[in-house]
Design brief:
disordered N terminus, Immunoglobulin-like, 4 helices, flat
Amino acid sequence: MKKIINFGIASVAIVLTGLVGLVLIAPTASAQTPSPTFNNDWQDYKTLRVSNYTKNPNSSTNWTTTVYADNGDVISFMIYYHNTVSGSTAGDTRVRVSFPTGYGASITPSATLWAQNANPLGDTAYVVSNAVSQRLEYEAGSTRFYPNQNSATSQPLPYGQNGSEIVSANGLRIGDIAGGWPTQGYVVFRARLIPETIAVPTVVPTVTLNSNPSQITPGQNATLSWSSANATSCSASGGWSGSKSLSGSEIVYPSVTTSYVLTCSGTGGQASTQATVTVSGNPAVSINQRVENVSYPNGGSTSNNAWPGNTLRYIFDITNTGNAALSNVELGDYLSSNLEFLSATNGGYYNSSQNRVVWNPGTLTAGASVNSLSFTARVKGGATGNYQITNRGQLTSNLVSAESNQVTTAVLAPQVSVSVSANRTDILPGGEVVYYVSILNNGSSPATDVTATVTLPFGLTIIEAPGASTISGNVISYRFPIIVAGSRQDITIRTRALSGLNPYSILVVRVDVSSRDNGAGAISNASNSYSLTVRNGASVPFVPNIIPPVYVPPTANANVPSDQLPQINLVLQANPDRVKAGEEVSYALAAVNGGRGIAKNVSVKIEIPDEMTVVESGDGFTPNGSGFSYNLGDLNANIGKAIAFKLKTSKDLKNENYLTVTATASYADKNGAVQPEIATAATIVAEGPRTLTALLSDIFSGIFTTAARLIFLIIAVLTLIAYFLNRRYAFVGNGRKEAKEVAVPLA
């Protein structure tokens, strides 16, 4: 806007002149308030201007009274206002833009600016279409308000308006506008050009369908002929089905009176017609079916019970109850997925691709029967819980089709559960605990090949496990050939807690049970566990308290699922953690497989500082550079190994020394892929004083001669030998201790 952008010297002069005029010609007290007038100053913009927003987006220099546009272009509109009468106020000022309602190649929108106390001011612009006829449509939410010479930031629309009011009859309210240049402003919005669409006339399809002949006797056929016009596709329903060509013929073989419907569709809609073929005569057939349990006879002829593994026999009787002969008779029976075909009588055979037993009796004259068509099938195993097998035979012929009555068999499956208890809820280190395991068949048929796996945690040793099939480390296995429905098997296990368990440790015994049904299918699994708390009051040596590790599956081998990878966790503890120079430190190392798969070739490397030497080591000890290593072999899931060793600090340590021993485990998954290493460390403090030999040497360094020093050293050596002979821990053998394999409870 001119007055928004060009406030120069001339504008200031005009304003000052106006002020002088006010001083020289001051109105009297009785003077009337002047009436407002809009946009009549020679410097004002046109009230309505337009711009092609699509071709000049966000442009401020392309406003004009005529704009050229293509199909679908967006047009911007600007309505300018300026109350040119100083001292007046245009009350409740409004703006409105009207669009022509029809389509046209040249569109003339018009704008109206008015107030309660001011005459309306109108203006027009022109939008010229470069293509087909179009009309303008307001774009919702596009209205912006820039009052009071503000051309940079739009202001919220007053009175809670949403902007669409600018194209309504009442217009957009912009408030009371005081006279003068400072209150001039404008409103902008956008509208889209909508091209005119010319409807293409459509033609409704037509279709004809005839039957020749229209009446037949059982066994005869008829020919259906049809044609269509103004259609693109045809489909059949009623006595036939599927897509049909736009014209053609087809032979049909109805066994009863049948109507055939043809529907053809096109751009103009669809049309349907039908033809009826009347069949004289009354063909009919009946099929009676029954079932019996060959292995365990029970129930009636249409329903019975069975266990997995039982043999069922299905029997059919067919009778032609109509007055016409039936040819191409076929009886079929689709088997349930829970049945395994065994044999069939009377020429029946099994179609494995269809899982269907089939008989072909050929022709049945009116009143004729074929009886005792039968087959046997075995009830499969593997289903969980009781379920029902339903069966129904199907007959087809040239004239009629029918289904038999339905027969049912209730299959009764086993359902195994397990409970675990103990003779105590807590235990002192070194104490005994007896566990009681009960395996119950809650189902309705025998559970066979029942296996129970009891996994003891790290910290428990087995005293007695009567009836166990195998014992491997802390894993005990049991096997029971059969547990009949409603009965149970009990297991008792005596164990002892290790003497070195930390107080408040949790010992968890887990029992996993699996079983098969009478059909040798694996159908039931159950698990349970029991937890004991280690009571306080034990003397705690250096055996570590193994905390169930958090399983974080490694991803080193993409060929092993993440839920089957091993995960080695290490615990290293030192006792005591503060010693004098020359004293011994006991270490306990535990390596636990907290993953879900076997850990292969587990090796733990121990690195010790130069200020320490090995006193005792566990089995599998191998010197290795700055330390030694242990080969732990393979560790199954939830299995760990604990090793104890002793180190001795150097006698000539000075002041406080922080000595750190590190343990690093390396291992592979079941396919041999190396997994990420895991490491842990234990730090102790070893403190002076200096050795007696060094102390005396400093005192007498300026006194003794070389010969005298040699004599002193001999005496010091003899003193040290006597000291070692009186030590509590003597160097006996190689100090080896046994490594124990333990089962560790995991979260």
